Amino acid sequence: MRLTVLLAALSTALPAVAFAGPASDAVKFFYVPAVKFEADAQYRDRFTEPVTKLFDLNDQATKKNPDQVACIDFDPGLDAQDFDQKTVSKTLKLSETVDGDNAEVTASFSLFSEGDDSKREMVWSLKKIDGKWKISDIASKTSNWKLSALECVAGQE
Fold it and tell me: Strands across the sheet with 132-140, in order?
């Protein structure tokens, strides 16, 4: 009963927003309870091409020059380097659209409690592979970039 009332309240308050589901859960993992760095090798199985290629090049660049910043010098899911975890957790809103084995999850949140420039809108592209949602790209609507379009020359030298 409570869930029905909550869903009814949410659908009235946010009529244009799609509800979060399994694809959103794959994205939510990177924001709460703690923000995780997407390019970290321990999360590689949650991704697919084309971003895994960039992550591999980033790994190579880090190995070649451990004292230098590699190709990914910010957190792609945040479109930032600095953030306040409490604010991100409190303001995070996810919505998804699913089309067969493809999904798009939009994550909207604030990095800090103050400042208009701390608002972010990220679009995560996902593909269902062997029954699991895997992330194929991350794009920033706020800063107008796409992870798959970033170049990592350092890993190829």
Answer: 93-99, 102-110, 119-129, 132-140, 145-146
pTM: 0.83
Considering only CA atoms, give the Rg of the chain. Answer: 17
Tokens of 109: 């949140």
Cβ–Cβ under 8 Å, residues 153 and 144: no
**Cα torsion 18, 113, 85, 53: sign:** positive
**Tens digits of residue pLDDT in 8-37:** 444 434 333 455 689 999 999 999 999 999
**Interacting residues of 125 by C-beta distance below 8 A, sequence separation 6+:** 102, 103, 104, 135, 136, 137, 138, 139
| Contact in structure between 26 and 46 (CB atoms under 8 Å) | yes
